[in-house]
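Revision sheet: structure tokens.
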Amino acid sequence: MNTKYLDLLAQKYNSEEKVAAEIINLEAILNLPKGTEHFVSDLHGEYQAFQHVLRNGSGRVEEKIRDIFNGVIYESEINEMVTLVYYPEEKLQMIKNGFDQEEELNQWYKEIIERMIKLISYASSKYTRSKLRKALPDQFAYIIEELLYKTDESSNKEQYYTKIVQQIISLGQADKLIIGLAYSTQRLVVDHLHVVGDIYDRGPEPDKIMETLINYHSVDIQWGNHDVLWIGAFAGSKVCLANIIRICARYDNLDIIEDVYGINLRPLLNLADKYYDDNPAFRPKIHSDKKPSEHEQLQITKIHQAISIIQFKLESPIIKRRPNFNMEERLVLEKVDYEKNEITIHGKAYPLENSCFATVNPEQPEQLLEEEEQVMDKLLFSLQHSEKLARHMKFLMKKGSLYLKYNGNLLIHGCIPLDEKGNMEKMDIENKTYGGRDLLDIFEHFLRHSFAHPEENDDLATDMVWYLWTGEYSSLFGKRKMTTFERYFIKDKITHKEKKNPYYHLRENEETCRRILTEFDLDPDQGHIINGHTPVKEIDGENPIKANGKMIVIDGGFSKAYQSTTGIAGYTLLYNSYGMQLVAHKQFNSKEDVLQNGTDVLSVKRLVDKELERKKVLETNVGEELLQEISILNSLMKYRYMK
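Predicted:
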């Protein structure tokens, strides 16, 4: 152990007693039950549904309340308390409006404060007092602790405790206390949140999800393909930038670009007005709760065409300068016969419909017009100077990774590229061959390098970020090719097919999952792979628990665009000291519906895995860190105080 480091540590622990006290504390924590992990994925900008799942802890809040109060208070009171914890400000106002007499309201305050204190006590039962204190509202921490830890068998302090509650009510602090206790409960029922990819695209409010995560007490993120697209755009990739604008136009979410992140789309609109007209293939998908005017729809349609053609042009030089990407067949603009208005794919000619090639030079299809170059330069400058987007992307990089090994499980958004025999597929990069974990590690290396050097936009690292979005061996894409062009312009749907990597059918096999866990140095007997990315079609009988429980897929359709396919509105996963539970969610209608009717979005809970012995902190990633701290403190004790 480095003695200089120990000398510095001794400044904090400057006595034998302080070192001993910290060792005792950490050793004791190792024997506490592990905290509850909460897994979500494929949020796709659906902030309202996401924040409700956070507030209810995928049912953990209601479970705790029922554990304490079932048979003790009326069912209506339980439902009222559940909703009060979810949405304290709004529910409080509704409850208060129902009282005519101040005495009745004050009596309710007294009862609900007592019940909330019991709930906090129960929800925090496996945490240290220090950890609980951090979860309490600062302004009431002392008062709450007094009420939590009251022991008064001889009634010496009965009036003391009664007076505390009376004064809270008489001084007009009851609402603030109840609201604080509600949010403390939400925090205590979930110790750590995992977001298994795809915060961005399709839904209307990814920025609000990002703000929520930034302020969340403990979180990690495994990047999804859509998240990487936004990271790539911020890192300087113009083709990634074109993609995010195209997707926002397709789903009528351009206000995310312009209003939320302050990126000026006027130059793009001017270009689109000049060269494009209405086109049914590029009309935006309309939200049920958002109806743009005909004029606005036409503007979006023009922008959608303009940025799509720019995207196809920008892809060509990357494909040509990176032959190892093996994407020559995606040089789609070069395969078009512009006189016949048809494209040849794999030797077969297909007629094109809804064509919009006004800015394409048939002799040099990849060549951007000077106006298009200027528009993209302005867009990139504006995007990279968005303060809000910078904060969000830096947080994504700080908390994110392509995969995570956590408490014996492998968390990954997409796939581990496999061949049909279940072997790790290989990719040649800079005269070296990578596969399996090594391939994901080199992908992440390039992504981080690109983000650190936003001034470079045609280097290998930046091109590799785009490859993660669309490449054959990308762990995030997981398909042989992306048929965006075909879906816009070719009627024959056989050309739209995107063949999935064999991983997606081989993951049904337990032995395949065990090999993958071993590849990542995880115990195949104890570990699980937790996936997002591909919506589980529960409506067709697909099971999200695969490979004898080794594989759990938790993309059940948070995104409204997928809910007709999945039949539900998303899965979440809970993993506490007793085991794992998968939770399916019904469609979230609105906060108002929950407040008025007390309805929740939970449906079926399924047991995935039950621990034979209750898992302790000692057996977790946090436990590993604490053991390292204990080892260092023991070294300090020997070095400074046991000579």
